[in-house]
Each structure stands twice: as structure tokens, then as C-alpha cells.
Records
---
Amino acid sequence: MTTLATPGTPGHPGTAAGTTSSTGLTPRRRRSKSSGMDLTWRGKVVRYVVLSLAAVVTIFPFYAMVVLSLKPAAAIQFPQSLIPTNLGFAAYDRVLGAGNIWTWFGNTLIYSVVSVVLVLAFSAMAGYAFAKKKFPGREAMFWSFLAMVMVPYHVTLIPTFILMAQVGGLDTYWGLILPTLANAQAVFLMRQFIMDMPDDLFEAAKLDGASEWRIFTRIVLPLCKPILATLGTFVFLWHWNDFLWPLIMGQGTDHWTLTVGIASLQQQDVPLNMILAGATISFVPIFAAYLVAQRYFQEGVTMSGIKG
Amino acid sequence: MTATTPSGDVLGPGLEGSVPDGAAPVARSTSGGPSGPSRGNGPTGPSAFRRTMARREARIGLLFALPAFLLFLAFRFGPAIAGVGLSFFEYTIGGTAEWTGLDNFERMVNDPIFWSAMRVTLILSVLIVPLSLAISTFMALLVRRSFRGSGFYRSVFFLPVVTSLVLAATVFTWVFSTGGPWSQLMGLIGLSTDSWLGSTTLVLPALALVSIWSRFGYGMLILLARMQDLPRELEEAAALDGANAWHRFWHIIMPQLKPTLFFLAVIETTASFQIFDLVYTMTGGGPARASYSLVYQIYDQGFKYFDLGYASTLGVALFIITIVVALVQRRLIGRDK
């Protein structure tokens, strides 16, 4: 990693020269766009080598997961096991046949999709109200939302669990979903976004006699498409990967999500190829979505700044 | 914030658009707007019309905000207060609650398992945060200019971020198993080939590595966004003056990244304090409680022993520690310059 004269790894203030080429030696003023900071071809090669090594390290676990899941159990010896020969879907057949994977898959899908729809609906409505309407208590409400963003999830975990247990929400979809809909960050982001819309838009519609609901669904929501896509991707991802909450809410295996189910496979003495087959199944939808809509994933996660 | 904004930002993201545009303080005009007294003619006059309009607006605003607010009251605000309250009770799942004052806190302070969990959590943070920030910065610098393939590399490095930690845990359990890739790699460089997950000293570095693998792409992307906002001129001028890459980084880029690094340090620290999924799936807190983290103890107390009062106390402790560390970091990183 230290061969390239790139900073980032602290220390070695001296080793910088070398690869980074023409720094200052040839002040090519004409090409002002990249004067003095271009990499030489050697620098470029080194950059590619370092990046490719890092990419291999990053991808290796995914590769191993897929290949090992396609191997017969007996063949899982490193490193021979990573050569993709003798592949088959035996482990998938077994994990799909024996376990409740489809149930978990369905639960995860319901948990994620329903949450996305409701979070988007409620946060868009609230965001519109906070951005464009004046009503008594608005400030207090808004600031209480904002303050709660700081309180970690684990402080509220236990009381929320007690509450849901008392109203009979354990082992139910609504019990699983409802508490996760309280998303202050989503409201905050929607408000920021809607605040930038010019008021004239709404005024004009109002003068034409449009109802508030109509203004909201026909003007506000369509204009919010970019933020809804970004936020929706993030909420989906968060729910799909969520672990602790489904773990404590799902008492029986029928109510588990994929993460909970796979963690339980991992803890029992299930053969590795079956565990990894389950993991691969849980990964495929996210990976497919990531390939199609990377931009939204990247925006969503960086905007909301949170991962498990 | 990388949110795309529609049209030019008219109002700007000011903290609170309290009084939009130049509306007179008395007139609660309909959400401002320069259109003036809209249709307000007729015998009642504009002011009466406006008042009914304002009342209507208020009602609608309240209605629109209500679902989110009720959810928020029930599942964030209420539980946060209850969580603090609960830490003063002996509460069992049967529903019996008994006020015990500071007993839970006293118990916590005298609980060797709590201190061991604290130690584990702090060690993990110390291992994870600096290394993860360094790697994020390093990778961001490598991919910050566009070149052939730069988009591909960014996508690859971000992939672990969208992957569930449970999934990562299943694969990495194999990676770190005896005879697995990591142990053979260690063997190649002459170290013991024993599984790191079975070692009380090496289990935390192993967990830290997985955590860094799963998170560095996030920091990279945040830093990348910031780096692309930096003016090129400064760097170019320094290059012309003969500053090498390291100097340009350390004296020009780095100072401008400080606020972003502070933000990331807080986020990363908070995340590493809450480490749970990996511990649960990879080690179950073992061996011999060597990876028993604070949130794992909360889970254990709350949902294995159903000692919900004590678990809440531990939650409050986590909250306080998170705030204290954020303040300390602010002093350390946020100050100077």
C-alpha cells in the first residue's frame, strides 16, 4: 500500500516524491487544467495496481460467498475451494427445501416495501407541512424531531419493545413495521427539499381551486421524485439489512427476516455452503438493485449517514 | 448534503423559514408568497378572508404533520423518556415494575461484565475509527479525479456499505476460520495459523477488520464529495511552487477536510460503539467474553435475562458515553486552525 506516494496513511512525510512525477519540475502553464498534478504513466500504473488490489480485497468475500455456496459441502477447503469447478445448486436445494428461507424472504420484502411506502408518505406530508404551512406548535414539533435524531436507537429499543409486547405486536407485521416508521431524518430531508420549491406554484394551483390534497399529490409529490427515490432507496436498504429489531420482535421462526434467519443458521451447525447459499439469496436483490440504481444508493446512504 | 435540489434554491436551507419573505408580522398570509391579497375582495374585506385562509392553512398543516408526529411521539420521544425512566426501575417482563432509585446504576458501576464490555467497545473504536478514516481518505484521494475506471472502483468500494453485516459476518467467519484464507495468509508470513476468532486477543482486531471492510466506502464517498468541492487553484499553485504530493495533501487538502473528518469521526465512533450484528453472528461475545460489547450486553440483559430495567440503564450509559466522546472529539479535531 505504501509504494504509491499518496498520502492518507499517516507517517512517511519523506517518501512522497518519486511516483508523482512532474510536480513543479515542468511548469506547463498552458495546460492549466492539470498543471503539475498529472500523474506520469508510472504513477498511473501504480494507481491502477493499488486500486485493483483494494478492489480484489473488497470483492473477495462476495466471490467466496457465491463460489462456496455452489460447492458440495465436502469440497470446502481453502484454497482449492475457490476455483470455480464442480459447481452445483445442491446447497440451494437443501436450504430452500429445509429452511424457511422463502418465508424469511417474504417477511423481509414486506418489512422493507411497506416501510418504504409509509415512511415516504408520512415524511413527505410532514415535510410539506413544516416547509410550507404555518400552524401552532410547528416550531416545537420540528425541533423535537431534530433533537431526537441525536438519541441513539438503543436507548429507545427496550421501551419500544415493552410497548409493542404489551399491545400484542410481537410476531406481527404491524408490530415489526410500525415503530420503524418514526423517522425524523426522513422528515427533515423532505422539509429541506420542499422548502426550496417556489411558493408561486402552490398559490397558482390554489387560485385555480385545487384542494390541498390535490396540490400535494399533483404538484408536491411529482416535484419530490428525486428525493423520494434517494430516500426510498435508503429506507429500503436499512430495512432489508436491519437485524436487531427483527431479532427481538420475531419470537418464532415464521416471523424472522432474512438477516435473523441467516444469523441463526450461522449459529447452528448448518454446513457452510448452505449458510452461504442463504446469504447469497439475501444478497441478490440488493445487488441487482445496486447495479441498476447505484446513484440512489450512494446518495441515500451518504445523505442519511447511517449504517447498522 | 448531496441531495439534488429542484430549480435554484430560492429560500436556502436556513434553519427555520419562520417568516417567509416580507410578509407583515401581523398578517398570517397564506404561506407568504408575493401574490398579495389574493382574491380577497367583497364586503368582508381582505383581512377577514386572510384570517379564514390562515386558519384553514393551519388546520391543513397540522393534519399533514400529524401522522409523522404521532409516530414520532409513540416510538421515539416516548420511549426515549421511558428509557431513562426505566433505568430507575426493577422491571421484569411479567410487568412488575418497582422503583429502585439508583440501584441499577450502582449495580452497573460494580458490574465487572459492564466494565469488560466497555473495554471491548472502546478497544474496537480505537481500532476501527482511525484506521477506517485513514483508509477512506486514502481511497478517496486515489479515485477523486475521473480517469478510465474510476467510476468502477468507486462502485466496488461502496458495495460492502450496502451489504448487510450479517451477510458479511457469515463470509468472514469462514475467512477467519482455522485453515481459512486469513489463517493461511498468517502462516505464509510466519505467524500462527490459529483462528483469530478463537483468540481472546485477536478476536477484536478480526472484528475491526470486518467492520472497516464494511464501512470504508462510506467515508470514502463523503470525503470524495468534499474533495470535489475544493478549489483546484490552491493545489495547482502549490504544485507549481514545487510542493510534492505529500505536502500538497498535508498542507492544502487536509486542512480543508477537517470539518468533514470531524463529522466522519463522530459517525464512525457512534457506529463502532453500537457494534452488535457482527458480534452476535461471528462470536456471540466470545471467546470468554473477549468480544462482549456494550450493545451485546444490552441485548443479553434485556432479551435473554429479561432484566429490562438494567438493560435500560446500560442504554443510558451508552448514550452518555456517545455524547462525551463526541464532545471530546470536537475539542481534539474541531479546535485548532
Note: Residues 45-86 of chain B form one domain.
---
Amino acid sequence: MTALARRLAVVPLVLLGVTLVTFALVHALPGDAALVQAGTARGASPESLAAMRAEYGLDRSWPAQYAAWLGRSARLDFGDSLVDGRPVRAKIAEALPTSLALALLAAALAFGVAVPLGAALGWLDRKAWARATSAALYGIYALPVAAVALLVLRAGAPWGARTLVGMLPAAGALALAETVKLARYQRGALLDALAADYVTTARAKGLGPAGVAVHALRNALLPTVTLLGSELPALLSAAVVVEQVFGLHGIGMMAFDAVMTRDVPLLLGITTVGALVTLAAVLAADLAYGLVDPRLRGRAA
Amino acid sequence: MSAWRRFSSTPGARLGLAILAVFVLAAALADLMPYGPEEQHPGGVTTVLAPPSMAHWLGTDDRGRDVASRLVHGARVALLVGPLAVALYVAVGLLIGAAAALGRRADFVIGRLIEIGLLFPALLLLLAIQGVTSRTSLAEVAFAIAVTQWPYVARLTRAEALRVAAAPHVEAARAVGAGRLRLLGVHILPLAATPAITAAAFGIGYAVLFETALTFLGFGVPPPTASWGELLAQAQASGLRPWLLWPPTFAIAAVVLACNLVGDGVRAALSAPLQAAGA
């Protein structure tokens, strides 16, 4: 698996880049955690602000702060939250299951609905209603995630439950745009596959419609599988909006709060873990690609 | 077949242009609406959260402002932020992506740069950037969107630039002594720009969606400026009244759909001659 090894070698480089950008950005924020916290108790003296900054290490230059952070985080210690003093690792561990459940549920919904739907629309492309459905999907794809989430909420979906079933409405709202995108992809891939030479050959040799469908679908799964992996950053972004609407305390809302309170250690921890999760998903999609297409096994993706 | 013929023979491309034209017209003539977008209780009568009526076609919001006026004025924000953001990130993505054709080392650096950019959950980065610029304006929202979107254009352009760089006409130009920058600017970039131009057409729709999400979360164009994301936030804050929820939803979907339809047309207009030439 040389391709996998080469991809894994890039991981530290990418993590370094992502955290460096975040660090520089957060440092450029006007005000800092000391000011934000003092803001809740107005009239903090300059002395107490300085003491607070010294305590958090905010008085040092940002490259120095970054170097210190890097040393600690290599040991998986992301420091303590500047807002409530709890370890960042514990806070993320609390919020991550909610976000992962939401994202995985949404991905499962999107994939589970999109593959059969897209394949059916591709297979039945000659029928007028299938074409009309494809066109209608384009309209749904244009809906903003915030509006979808609000509409689901308005439809009176039971929500807020901490169970997987209770999360279904939120996951559905998150999955809708992705489902349409994947279904359109799947439809196009099946149409391409059906027009390919090997399908013509199989037909000429007497393969029935069912056989042709299976034959073409297997190859048409390829682009959809990789797309799912590369769509995870978009899914995580949309999750911030969905978590806000449904009041879920996931990573997205935590990142939102971290920006508002200038909680640097928490924000850095979240971006690092977020990048790791995304990298893992992209790698998993690459591996799945290899499983579906034997030609690609062991080759650079 | 001319590019325009290929464009207009794509299903929906002309419909997309027509929809966009309607919204551009509405944005341009927004000041003709009977009420100002930030005017509270116009006419001196208290009309908070009133359903649609003859006086207020789309009802009023929780501060008694006319929803129809705010919707039409919101088109200005969407139609300014979208194209501005796209122009910014397509230019940056084009330059960075094409620079990969300068050599192996440049390609390695740019390849990693793109990978880092693609991995960043866009909204997280947007939140951070919006925090940086405390006083948000249209330009800053566009800038924030551009920062998260350039890697996609750069990735497309890089692949195309590397392909074009191996073409015979580039080799010929190099043989007669063209320098690296001249090769890049004259012989590679114009040909490698095709995917980026297609992405730009679709990109305006994405940018509108991003702006909506940002403003909805409270990080975009600040209130009381009327924007579609802010209208959605108002709908959430006011018990999901249908006349507050549906108009922005419909407006955003119409603009995004129109951009996607136009994007399909642009793709058809640009890709066909290359295929005909046996590329």
C-alpha cells in the first residue's frame, strides 16, 4: 500500500498548515480572551487584565505561543479552555459524539437514498417522469441549509432528543443537499456506464436487463464513493447551521462559541480534530475506491 | 456551432439567465418599493408580525418592517457579495493553480497548499475570519468566502495547467526560447482557464448560499441591513411565521438554481469545441 503510505506522510504537513493558519487568524482577532471575559464584569483594571494575559500566556508573541502549543499538542494535550478552565480534550470528547452521530447519520441517509434514487433515475432516463424528477432535484439542491432546517423544524419534527432517532430530523436536513448532489452524480455515472463499450459487449453476448444493471451499477458506484469522502468538509460546515437550529451541542456550536469568546485553545483543538476526522474520511474513501475498483489497488489515487 | 448556440441549447440555461435578470432588475429598482427596508411601523400604525395584506404584500416582521421591501433590498446584498467573492477567488485560484506548471518544486508546494485549503471546514474558517474583521461589510464577507473557496478553483486549474503544459504548442514555444513566465502567461494560462470559468458560473450560487449561512449565524452582513440570511434568522427568532420563512427561502433557491442552470450552459459552451478538436 504505497499510495496509502504516501498519503499518510502528508498528514503531519497538512495538520501543521491548518493549525498555523488558525493560530495566525485567531491572533489577528481584535481583543482577546482576557478582554472578552473582563467584558462580562466591566471595569476590570489594566493590572488584572495583564495578570490574566500572563496567566494564559497571551502576553507572548504568537509564534512563541504557537511553538508552545505545538509541543503540548504533540502529546495530545490541547490545554485548558480559557472560558471555563476545563481541559479542551474533555470538552471535545463531550461534543464529538453528537457531531459524529449527526454527520454519519446524514452521510448514511444521503448515500442510502442517493444511490438507489440516482441509479433508478439513470436507468429510467427515457421516461418523462424520471426526467422531471431529475429537474426537480436541481431545485431542491438550491435550497439553503438554514431554510431546510427551519422548514423541518416547522413541520413539527420531534427533535432535541439525544438518541439517534431523535437526531433523524436534523440529520435529514443536513443530508438533503448532499443527497441530491450524490443522486445527480450517481445518475450521470450510470448513464456513462450504460453507454460504455463493455456494457454494449455484455448486451451483445445476451446479458439480460437485470444483468446489465448490476454490471453497470458496480462501476457507476465509483465516483459516488469518492465524492462522499471529499464532501465531509462541506457537511461539517453545514452542520454548524443545523446544530444551531436544532440546539444540538456538537463541535459546530462549540467552534461558534469559541470564536465568540476568543477561546484560542478550544478553537485550535477543534480545528485540529476536525482536520484529523476529515483526513480519515478522505483516506477511507480512497480505500473504498480501491475495494470497488480492483484496478486501483496499490496505485496512487 | 457558436458558443452562444451551445449555451442556449442547454436545457434551462436561458431560463437561468432570465431569472437572474429579474433579480438584477429588482435589486436595481429596490428603492421603488413603497417602504424603506429599515423603516419601522411605516404609516405610524403598529404592525408587528402582521400576515400578508394589501398594505404589506408579504407581511411585517417583529419590528414592524415590511418583509417585501426587505426581501427586494436583500437581493442587492446577494447579487453584490456573490459576484465579488467569485471574482476574487477565481483570480487567486487561477494564478495559484496555473503557477503549478512553473516546475516540479512549485507544483509540490502548491499541491500541499491546495490540500490544506481543501481540508479546512469552510464555515469554521469563515467564522474565524469574520471574527477578525470586527466591522463587517459586504467586501469583507466576500473576502471571507473567497479565502475558503480558492483551493477548489486552484485544484481544477492546476490539473488543467499541468495537462496543457505537456501540449506540443508549449514545447514549441519553449524551443524558440520563450521564458517560463511567458510560457505560463501566454501559452498555458488562457487554455487552462476553462474549468475555472465554469466553476465561476456555479460559484455565484454557492457564494449566495455561504453568505446566507454566515448572516444566518450572525457573522455576515450586520443588521439592520436587509439580507436574505438575516431574513431567515428573523424567521427563526419570530416563531417560524410562514410569511417570514418562505420568501427568503424561495428567493435564495431561485438565484442559486439560476446560477446552476447558467453554469450548465457555460460548461456546454466551453467544453464542446475542445471535444470537437479531438482533445
Note: The mean pLDDT of chain B is 82.
